[in-house]
Amino acid sequence: MDDTGPVAGASLHVRDLLVTPRRWTLWRQRPRLIAFCLVTEAVAIGTTVLAAEWVHPGVKDVLVMLALAVLGITQAELGRQVERVRRRVNGTPHINMTSVWTFAGVLLLPPALVAALVAVLYAHLALRSWYRLQRVPAFRSVINGSVVVLTCYVARLVLELFGVHGIGDVLQHGWLGVAAIAGTVAAYFVANALLILGALNLTYRSIRELFGGWADNLVELATLCLGTLTALAMATQPVLVVMVVPPLLVLHRGVLVKQLEVAATKDEKTGLFNTLGWHNLATSELARAGRTNETTGVLMVDLDHFKQVNDTYGHLAGDLALKAVADTITAQVRSYDSVGRFGGEEFVVLLPGVAESHVVAVAERIRHAVSELVVPVDFADDGRVIKDLSVSIGVAMYPTAGTVVDRLLHAADTALYSAKNSGRNKVVSF
């Protein structure tokens, strides 16, 4: 579990990997995450030992496992450039393509060999990260592999509950076999979401954060479908399994393109929409409001005395303050309201389908929440915090203040300057 990584510019030596357990990076994580990692790994190891005693694999099973491992490693190497860009663009845990091979293993292999397949694939990912000096903590690879092992066991259990013992039985059971595959896919999907996106992150606040967005779900479903086709090919005509790799690489690249499109509309520091992304979304919302004759509110939010924050605490601390304010604004509005960073310390909020009184109430709620913010300067390690923050907010309403985005922004900006000039930490309507 050592994940100290090599010194920048140096080659990877054994001494960089073999350190005492007390120096593992795992111990520097949150207590809940440490407990989750240890329990999950213990359960994965224990169930694998029991599985190995329960079913003894044959030579054919071992050959199938090795074939899936080779295919998985080959696909990972062919797609490593795309994966590297995906991680750089996304910056968060994301669905990878190993589900194709692990789910095929669920349908083809005894449980213990499925665990061996997962171990090989994730060991390859970990070693590749070390070799390329990416400094990925080793405990992440270990816990991710353990979670996938448990996910595979849950899916295999569901398959057995249907009375189906593998892909060969599926072909013999007709529609029952189809139902078994569907149930196994659903079990894999749900178990993976609950374990990885839920318990591992330990920070989700909504169903969307727990199960991911539609794009993530569709990618996971696509990989499971390809895993099913891989298992069918291995069971009927093994040579055809290589035909799974090209569409998998195309899918991988397609996911990257989508992530790049999303990244082009996001602000890097806050995760909000950038000016272009917010403007395009606001234009669409105003067009809809025109068709439905609904009022829509626009807020222009400016962080007061932000230069003093930078001068006092430094620009890195200023970035933390911007992110905290962005998160606070997002927490005070509805999930379908649009929040963007307009530039510098200014933010914009679009509130569709609400009356002016409600828009002003939301603005006051944001102003009050920001005034109570306390932002720890984590990297300083000296207990310093940023507090006494405040915002001035300008309010403009569609259609009374304007019918196009630029006109509404100008009106909200005018109201914002009135709030600034009258003492700051205020909400003013145009």
Fold blueprint:
Blueprint: H1 14-17, H2 31-54, H3 59-78, H4 80-90, H5 99-108, H6 111-131, H7 138-161, H8 167-172, H9 175-200, H10 207-211, H11 214-236, H12 245-263, H13 275-292, E1 296-303, H14 306-313, H15 315-331, E2 338-343, E3 346-352, H16 356-371, E4 375-376, E5 385-386, E6 391-398, H17 405-421, E7 427-429
Parallel strand pairs: 6-7
Antiparallel strand pairs: 1-3, 1-6, 2-3, 4-5
Helix pairs in contact: 2-6, 2-7, 3-5, 3-6, 4-12, 5-6, 5-7, 5-11, 6-7, 7-9, 14-15
Organism: Kutzneria kofuensis
InterPro entries: Diguanylate_Cyclase, GGDEF_dom, Nucleotide_cyclase, Rev_trsase/Diguanyl_cyclase
GO biological process, one term: negative regulation of bacterial-type flagellum-dependent cell motility
Provide an overview of this structure.
Residues 1-18 and 202-207 have low confidence and may be disordered. Helix content is 63%, strand content 8%. The chain has 2 domains: 14-263, no CATH class; 275-429, Reverse transcriptase/Diguanylate cyclase domain (Alpha-Beta Plaits). α2 packs across α7. The protein is built from 17 helices and 7 strands. A hairpin with an 8-residue loop joins β4 and β5. It has a 5-stranded mixed sheet with strand order 2-3-1-6-7. By secondary structure, it is an alpha+beta fold. It is elongated.
